[in-house]
Amino acid sequence: MIDLHTHTSFSDGTDSPTELINKALASGISTIGLTDHDTVAGWDEAISHLRPRIALVPGAEISCQTEDGISVHMLGLLFDRENKELADVLEQTRENRIGRMNKIIARLNGAGYEITMSDVQEQLSDGATLGRPHLADALVAKGYLKSREEVFAELLHNNSPHYVAHYSPTPEVAIALIKAAGGVAVIAHPMASLRGRVISTETFKDYVSAGLDGIEVFHRDQSAENRELLINIASELSLVVTGSSDYHGNGKLNQLGESTTSPEEFFKLESKANARRVIKL
Questions:
Q1: Is residue 125 a part of any domain in this protein?
Q2: Whether the Cβ atoms of residue 59 and residue 31 lie closer than 8 Å to each other
Q3: Which one, of 274, 248, 257, lies nearest residue 185 by Cα?
Q4: Structural element, H or E, at residue 215
Q5: Reported pTM
Q6: Do the strands 184-188 and 71-77 form a parallel or antiparallel pair, or are they unpaired?
Q7: Separation of alpha carbons 143 and 161, rounded Å
Q8: Domain span at 141
Q9: How do residues 171-181 score in pLDDT, each as one tens digit?
Q10: Residue pLDDT, tens place only, 119-174
Q11: What CATH number corresponds to the domain at position 144?
């Protein structure tokens, strides 16, 4: 099985990279993508704990925003992490998450929720990328709600009065950066409407012009109807079709390997990188 989209405690997952590798092996996964939000900090630990029966696809899930404010997530896979332009944008995105978090906390305080940045930081592992899931965990720890899912449903969804956007590149810029770093770009869960507004189908042509390589079609947050639509778009635009779990450990219901990428599609995707960067023993 090939699962190209997972998270660890270096962003908003609950498993360490070591635990992720061990659980992937136990789940029968042969190729695992590590795609923490806006960071490559977990790569080294994952690499050091590989086993002969599993390969690592190093990557990151890059937070993007369209010109009209729609949130888009772009999976960058198999890129050169030493590429300065991409590394700088990832760092800038991470730094801007701090200012955004302070603004969200201020709005929650104004609504009567007693929460501080210190409370949120207590939920982060060392070196982790700050995000709303950590705020959700802090609110759960304070007893306001019972789970991350409840917090997002009631307080932190994209249409909430507490929501605050943060700096992020446009999808076109992110794609160009990934390609310039020798990697491949796959748009993650583009029709996951429960997360907020989604892009129009016409937008994919612009992303292909920027260098888009694939679409994450098989994902639990996309309906069967939307999957069929995305398959047709991928066929029309000659894009690779992927499937992934978007695993977050205990942070979400998603289970490793619940959606996967076929070996044939992964072969096509890997061939679009400018070097062979899949890591295996």
A1: yes
A2: no
A3: 274
A4: strand 214-218
A5: 0.89
A6: antiparallel
A7: 21
A8: 94-156
A9: 999 999 999 99
A10: 999 998 877 888 899 999 999 999 999 999 999 999 999 889 999 877 799 999 99
A11: 1.10.150.650
